[in-house]
Amino acid sequence: MVKLTEQNRADYAESVISAVNAGNIQQFRQLFFELHPQDQLDIYLSMTKTQRKSLYEYLSPEEYAEVFEELNIDEQKVFLHELDESYAQDMISYMAADDVADFLGEMHESKASAIIEGLDEEDARDIKELLSYEEETAGAIMTKEFINLRADSPISDVIELLRREGPDAETIYYLYVINERHELVGVVSLRDLITADPGNLVESVMSSRVVSVKTSEDQENVANLFKKYDFLAVPVITEHNKLVGIITVDDILDVMEEEATEDLDEFAASRGATDLTITPFTAAKKRAPWIILLMFFGMVSANIIAQFEETLEAVVLLAGFIPLIMGSAGNAGTQSLAVAVRSLALGSLEKKGLSKMLFREFSTGILLGIICAIVLAVIIPVMHGSFFLAFIVASSLFLSLSLATVIGTVVPLIINKLNLDPAIASGPFITTVNDIVGLIIYFSVATAMLAYL
Questions:
Q1: Same domain, 239 and 290
Q2: Strand order of the sheet with strand 233-237?
Q3: CA-wise closest residue to 147 among 224, 216, 246
Q4: What is the pTM of this model?
Q5: pLDDT on residue 44
Q6: Domain that holds residue 88
Q7: Are residues 314 and 447 in contact, defined by beta-carbon separation less than 8 angstroms?
Q8: Residues 132 and 152 reside in one and the same domain
Q9: Is the CA virtual torsion 111, 113, 117, 121 positive or negative?
Q10: Does the keyword Cell membrane apply (predicted)?
């Protein structure tokens, strides 16, 4: 396999493309198969439609399947239409069942059914099973390409089995042991098999303490399990402990990226709108509900200001500090929101406890409030010559920051208790709520102190 540097990557790619343009099949195949699969993908994506048409002739369906699997779902939909129907059907038959299921799950039901019908019985059964599980669960992301063993099998037979079936398995570093009822009873590592006496049985080297997940387990919980135990793979079982698949670390990396993107979307109140491939109209449609909701919250802020119109008329200068109060409270609340959502995602909240987290964030808000209040108490009298104005603004900001951190912490915890994604307590939402709270505090303090101004 060729190891490319940034300097020679472009030159090598040009050589591959030149071989395609010249119709030199032998040279193309020699150059192409020396590349890492990701480099093959980069070259494929850089090709024109005419060049890709030649590539389909130069690669067998089995060889092209390895390239097709590396594409994202949207790209797969586009390039599938370039393939001859029989070539496409053969290519799909060589793909891993979980990759096929992910692809077909995004296609029209009639088209997906037609493709499944063209597969052999075993592959079709595996794909239908994967499609039957709810999205974002362990069952939906598991793979069916794995090797299982029997405890009473001689290790020499297992080594021979690995030589025969290992190339088609997703991973062979950990092998799972089942009984006659296909129930998961143990796990054995490849290292233990290789170093053991070939005449011994699998049960002599296997461990019966197996960490597994149910098919209905949320994929984010599975990702946390991988992180906790540093797994390369984990077995997936049914409610009756029957082994039905495995999840490998490469699948979990995709899950982590997906969950991080989803949380970011929720946090920014733009779920599904951060994908640069969607149209402006689609992005606007996805963002509009939150924007409209927050607009109505903004009208609440306007009504609060209107309720204290007399206070503002008495001391017009108070209006100048409204952005300061609102902005500071919103920012502090968003910071606490990030801490709470992150703690829930990593599971650290269970370790440290709710009371400790609330106390820490409230204490942080108080300290931030004291620091900001001291700064304002020094600056405002110098700029505006009023100690009472400084007291109003400083004390309001102190109270706002103290409450904002609590609100930013508590709201996602409440949402999590309702079995909803805590990330929907988005930054803009928390900011707007704390804006309202900050305004109420500010004008209440100002009204109470109005006689001294």
A1: no
A2: 213-214, 233-237, 243-248
A3: 246
A4: 0.64
A5: 94
A6: 6-137
A7: no
A8: no
A9: positive
A10: yes
